[in-house]
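debug: dumping io for the single-chain case to check the tokenizer round-trip. Nothing else runs in this session.
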Amino acid sequence: MIKSTNFKKLAIYFLTAIICCFSITGCSSTPKTTETIGEGSEYVVIHSRAREKSGGVFCIDNNGNIVNQISKFDMQDLSFFSFDENNLLICGGRSNNNIRFDLSKNGAYSEINWLNEPNYSGVTGIKLNGNSALVVMNGNYTDETYLNLVVEQDFQGNVIHQNIIEIYCRDIALQSNDALIAGKCLKKNSGERTWEASIIKYDILNQAIKKQDNYGQYNCFWEIELNNGLYYCLAEDKNELKNIVCVIDPETNTVLHEIKLDDQLTGLEIYNDEVFVVGNNGIYKMMPEQRCEKIVDIGCPENAYVNWAYTYDGSYYVFARLQQRESIKGGYHYGDVFKIDLDTLEKKSTPIKQNKDITMDDILIFPAHMFN
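debug: decoded output
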């Protein structure tokens, strides 16, 4: 950690240089067409290495058997994603390498570099916004705080705007023409620097911060959702336990309710105006009396954890990843993806396997019918 004033000047200069050096006219890569998703495919698996540019895409059936290997690409640490009915965007955390899948074209994808410069850092948060994406690029420390860069860029490579923000982003939600950027802010008190959970309300059209509110009782807000005019946040406490759901009134910045669970939480989703959270032990539903009730037991073994979770087409998809991959005949077993129907609560699991000549550090899994 660098603490000198010279570094503060350097960090601000670096971020300012990013803003000044690029015009709004950019470039985009030519879309690449993959092979057709194989018949009988249940899931599309997108994987990469954490510290080297190596990755690919393959399809599996409902038993985890590989149907076909679709593509290989030089990508690193593909660990962030956002999707809507038209696009699936996957971004690197350590490196500025990103892929946009056109969901209307069955496997066509384009490679994207934010600010059209592959040598810049990766992202800490992303959100699709129609024909563009809002991303927060990782910055660095100054004497007083931590600076990141919020960027909006379309899929033709045109940089619409960018701004320096004082937050380490963990999640982004959209509220009309505003973005809710949640994460943590570095504060300096009595000579010591500490993290506080923080939410920025960012005006996308006017490219300006409307307000930033910090919540010193928490370390970080890992996820944020908007429901019935209230913020729902997945919070980490001062002991670095990610086991709290906060309900916040955005008008008064008051934490109306705080629900603690005996679980390590990973995901927070809104489905049919109801709030769901997922942890290693199961899926929970927020009840009217402001408590969380477990509705599905995930059954994560002791040597596994929930890596990520999301809702799509009425189902919760949850990846229970093994802490250490297990050797099996001809390859490795990395964990299991669960599909939970949120109406019937029916649960189905599929093992995630790969050949021994391929190592997967980051693994993202999406239903094959998303690409049709």
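debug: round-trip ok. The longest helix spans residues 5-21.
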